[in-house]
Amino acid sequence: xxxxTVEEIVAxxxxxxxxxxxxxxxxxxxxxxxxxxxxGAVVLDxxxxxxxxxxxxxxxxxxxxSGATWEAVIRAANAHGLAVEVMQAYSGFTVAGSLAxxxxxxxxxxGPLVESVRSFRLLLADxxxxxxxxxxxxxxxxxxxxxxxxxxxxxxxxxxxxxDKVYRKSERLVDYREIAAAxxxxxxxxxxxxxxxxxxxxxxxxxxxxxxxxxxxxxxLAREPYAxxxxxxxxxxxxxxxxxxxxxxxxxxxxxxxxxxHGDRFEPPLISRNNLMNVxxxxxxxxxxxxxxxxxxxxxxxxxxxxxxxxxxxAGRTRGRTRSPRPSCATTPTSGW
Length: 337
Prior knowledge:
This protein is of the alpha+beta class. It is 23% helix and 28% strand.
């Protein structure tokens, strides 16, 4: 059931409640888990409920409806020289879908998405609408973010923003036994604002034993020449190469060679934060009915010292930026697509 207004969502929920039907909430439909579906359910298609409601440069916040994509958030923030703090690797997903799974990102200054959420409005099963934040209905704040849509329908979200900077990319080949230490060293560098690693997918003795570690460091370059949000680069080519690596061993070797030796052909050495985060997941699109993809993603504990992070309690509620005298431990993703 497509919805585009609060009134339509409230009416759909009231109808389902009257008929004793379960409700499922759909964005781009990429979240995993059977809890998001139910036989005979009323499916709320939230992708039409996607307006940017406000962007406040002084407060460094943006407020969007729950079906808005991260690309819409990026563009709204970019108009004010600001950028998203936390989102997943692809910008085509919906904001509320990301909240539902509490996604992570690759900026070592931030933890999962919960850290950048200021507040949101929530439609409860009884039809009432409540505002949820760390101060208002704080119990719901910890349940809804990462709650897979089981506690209500998120209506709109207020997010914190950070500066849009120009980054310089560097890449190096690292043995798998050294990757945790290498990433920990990157995280300890205050100029590093994005770091991740890709594991080798080459069959044989190199499988998961080599990594390409990618680091983006903030520069002092003027933002203007890099500020325009460009369309995602090389999506069709990336999809073609990804398809080769799905089907053939030589395709895996070829793709790994490109990643290892020719990364700059796909992503420029200088890029703005907003353009770095504006990545189209269409390169992963797959139409085969008799096979599927498995994402192998590993989270490495790394403990840099002297970095400013947000401290969170067990419910995921942020208490503000703190500087701890002890190492602040977090995780950095590595993937083996």
